[in-house]
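Phosphoinositide phospholipase C
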Amino acid sequence: MNHLMTIDGFLMYLTSPEGSIFNPEWQGLFQDMSQPLAHYYISSSHNTYLMEDQLKGPSSVEAYIQALKRGCRCVEVDCWNGANGEPVVYHGHTFTSKILLKDVITTIANYAFKASEYPLIVSIENHCSIEQQEVMARYFRDILGDMLLTSTLDGGVASELPSPEALKRKILLKGKKIGNEPESFTGEVSDEDEAAEMNKDSLASESPPTDAKKSKQNLCKELSDLMFCKSVHFHSFEHSCTSAKPDEMSSFSESKARKYSKEAGSDFVLHNTRQLTRVYPSGMRTDSSNYCPLDMWNMGCQIVALNFQTAGMEMDLNDGLFTQNGRSGYVLKPEILRNRERLFDPEKPEEREDYHPLLFSVKVISGQQLPKVKQKEWSIVDPLVRVEIYGVPLDQAKQETKHIDNNGFNPCWNESLRFTIHTPELALVRFVVEDYDTASRNDFIGQYTLPFTCIQPGYRHVHLLSKDGMSIHPSSIYVQIKITEL
């Protein structure tokens, strides 16, 4: 026996998990899951009930099923008064269809831990009357049963939230909560919700400010008592530093979050070492488009909510980040975003103590069995490959190969692309294959996104995914990866 490998055997090896660009060591659950909740990125969905746009599309429990199967660990439920005393879920003041809250909670109970055993956060926008809030509280208690956790595990006042490990298979509700007011049955709370924020977003800049008057809403104690995380209005970073409790969470629209990241970078990073921060798309995104989540992750924001129903680069990045760590929906933030002593500024990565930029070289060699993008039998793709880097501002970059005429079966590029990576822990790499078109926009063929830290150097296969993140096996590209210190 010669112990030789045949051509077929060699090809099988190259396309096997050992030949993948994704280091198999990082695919399973490998991170420390015993740190406080605020130390993790959490895969999060916005207006989870919507299947399409934000104005007139259908609401459906199917949208919850899809998000939860995809590893989402924070879903949103907008509750409004419904007929016959039954609370409904829909996008308030729009023409989106309505579904029963009871059905949403039942679906969450059935699918919460199918993809991951780690805690599921349910973010509640509560617009209901006291009577229907009582119904809400009853449904949450009765349908979720033992899965529902309403207070920190030790019962005392903790300085940090519990860890994902301590909260396994638990559902945590986040919403408005009565403070320490003396009311016996109901409490008044300020209405600090997305609807108000969206109205501000859509106001013309010359309009007088409308946020001076906060509408008040009565809150039912039974529902308030079920909240694990309390929605609070954000006053300032100084205020949160001195006064905020670990279970208090503020939500920011993307524009507000971007403003804070520019004006108070390291203060925002410090805030996110202690508090959970939720970011959601601007009210102007009525088509359910998404913002780039990287800008928020760079600040250490944990709950960066995206419209899961909208395919594109933004959801590719979300899927890419959460591909690691057993697809559990939780990824431990890099040490630079957990350290309270040495604050990291994403705008100035070179100022960190352990600054070691890397040279990332990608030789794009060939493609295998790329799918046709036009249905006509005679159509053949003219493929090109683009490598995109997402991370701190200094790392944002894109380079692409030339296109190959009329060859989707086995195109060969043999082109080298080079990038400098200043903050490897925050970088994501996206490989995109497109069908070149001289007259119009290139057509999308496939993509694959993964964290830079999960890349396995050497000769590797990149298995392509569809626009919706599904495998389009056996389509792939073959690359050589080199990572060296500068």
